[in-house]
Amino acid sequence: MGLTEASTEEEVDAYLSNPNYYPVGTFDDAPDGTGAPQHIAPFFRTDLSAPFGTPGDIARLDNFNNLVYTVLLDPTSLVTEGGRSFLMALAGEAAGKEMADDYLQILQETGVIGPGGQVGEGFPYVTASTMGMPGEEATPVGRRVDEQKLRDLNAYTDSLQAPMATGFDAAAAMRGKEVFRTGSCVQCHNVDQGRRVPSFIVPINQLLADYMPVVLAERPVQLPFRPMAFDPIQNDVSTIFDDKTVIVDASRRGQPRGSAMPLLLDLARKPNFLHDSSVATLDSLLDPSRGPAAPHAFYVADAAQRTDVVEFLKSLDTTP
Fold this sequence. Notes:
This protein is α+β, with helices and mostly antiparallel strands. The chain has helices spanning 9-16, 61-72, 81-91, 93-109, 147-159, 170-182, 204-207, 282-286, 303-314; strands at residues 26-27, 38-39, 129-130, 143-144, 202-203, 214-219, 230-235, 258-259. The strands form four sheets. Strands 1-2 form a two-stranded antiparallel ribbon. Helix 3 (81-91) packs across helix 4 (93-109) and helix 6 crosses helix 9 (303-314). The chain is globular and about 65 Å long. The chain starts with 8 loop residues before the first helix and ends in a 6-residue tail after the last helix. It comes from Pseudomyxococcus hansupus. Residues 171-317 form the Cytochrome c domain. InterPro entries: Cyt_c-like_dom, Cyt_c-like_dom_sf. Keywords: Heme, Iron, Metal-binding.
């Protein structure tokens, strides 16, 4: 089932409430025209994180927060001139224009009143200054909210500590730490979660061994809305693991298409794992029975050692 500008409210509700399309604990944050729900990641100690967004397409936290304010919390900005440029940069000129036109049609037909009091006019609602070039990281739709508010929000999210880890076997966790430290895990992840995560992007073909995407559209330089070439729009229909990066990826800032590194915090309370929520438990995540072609196929073969590593991961927090 898909949604179009002609879908009824009942059809939209049925789609968004269907756990087969949107599992509990996931959301779709990108206005890219694709249904790509992803795991809601814990939001702690943003001073230790970077880049931002699952695909690592945002380098700076203040720019990430500005994107949230000006686009994700107020998508009516996408029907402005700057919003249209943003969509065309991501999805291509024809597709970007179609998405903006369809959304404006929905706003008009459902009687959404703009800030000026007219139906379907005067958007966006967000209080922001018009500045910069649409498509740039700092001003994705050519708007930016108050800098002091962005700095204040940065300071707040930087201060958020993960819950203190409890309910783990301390002796097993110490053994698991040694397995983690001496294995392949540390090629990407820190042992100490109080250290800033590595800032590189892990290419998707390193996370998915048999990844074979089909190119759907090229994204060359196309002025004025795409001043640098992006990686092609591409998709592997055999997996949902790449859905988040079909259109939105880090190539728009000159980085590989893949995933940014997460902090390993509050793992004991997570209901599932990986950004597509496809793995139910930490033990399953590390179990080689998932196979070499599964996403994030980095395993601990010995069952006892795997149990110890699970206890270690459950023990991680930002307590000094």
